[in-house]
Amino acid sequence: MTSAPDAVNVRPLVLADAAVFAGWASDRDFCLAADWSLDRSAAEHVSFHEQLIEAAPIGLLRLAAVHAGELVGWVDLHADGGPTRELGFLVGGRDRWGLGLGGRTAAAGVAHAFDVLELPEVWAEAVALNHASVRILERLGMDEVERGGGAAYRGAASYYRRFTLTREAWGSSRGAPN
Q1: SS3 breakdown of the chain: % helix, strand, coil, rounded to 5?
Q2: Strands 85-91 and 121-127: what pairing?
Q3: Where are the domains of the chain?
Q4: Which of 21, 22, 110, 156 is the most buried (most CB within 10 A)?
Q5: Is 137 in contact with 108 (CB distance < 8 Å)?
Q6: What fold, for 8-173?
Q7: CA dist 41 to 27, 36, 56, 174, Å?
Q8: Helix and strand tally (H, E) in the chain?
Q9: Which helix (H) or strand (E) holds 133?
């Protein structure tokens, strides 16, 4: 299947992806925004990601997000015990932020959830102060359903905003956000 040049596609993770993910951890601002530990060494970051790739926690499906042949992030579809999954996504490094890759990565994850896993619904949470992530979820057509618990974003107190999207709603709005 051929995809558009600006498309983000997902694929299974491979062990070599761990080094790419760990490389993003050298950027303090990235770590603060992504809520990553600031006290791990580069080797510890590689080991952490290798362990996740080799033996993901039960219920976690993490897929590599690829754009123009480059690994640009990941999508998580985490089982919550029911027929739905929680969508998570990350784009790295920071030089890729603001280019629309977050929206296309999240859309690729939603498409996988509905088209491959055939889920009836996905949900996601975003920290209210993370305006870019909130905007991405809104542009996906997700409906905000409730305010979640407390959270922090880049050291500032905030809270989670919870969103849902059904397969039917996705099918009627099909397409990646701008």
Answers
A1: 35, 35, 30
A2: parallel
A3: 8-173
A4: 110
A5: no
A6: Aminopeptidase (3.40.630)
A7: 12, 12, 21, 41
A8: 6, 7
A9: helix 131-139
Position 28: which residue type?
R
| pLDDT tens column, 29-82 | 999 888 898 899 999 999 999 999 999 999 999 999 999 999 999 999 999 888
Q: Which residue in this structure is represented by tokens 């996504």?
A: 89
C-alpha distances out from residue 74 to 25, 47, 66, 69, 148, Å: 15, 17, 8, 14, 23
* The two three-digit tokens of residue 84, written as one number: 């739905």
- Report the C-alpha gap between 76 and 125 in whole angstroms: 12
Computed over every residue of the chain, the mean pLDDT equals 93
Residue at token pair 């959830």: 113
Residue 93 preceded by cis peptide, ω within 30: yes
Whether the CB-CB separation of 44 and 83 falls below 8 Å is answered with no
- Longest CA–CA separation in the chain, Å: 46
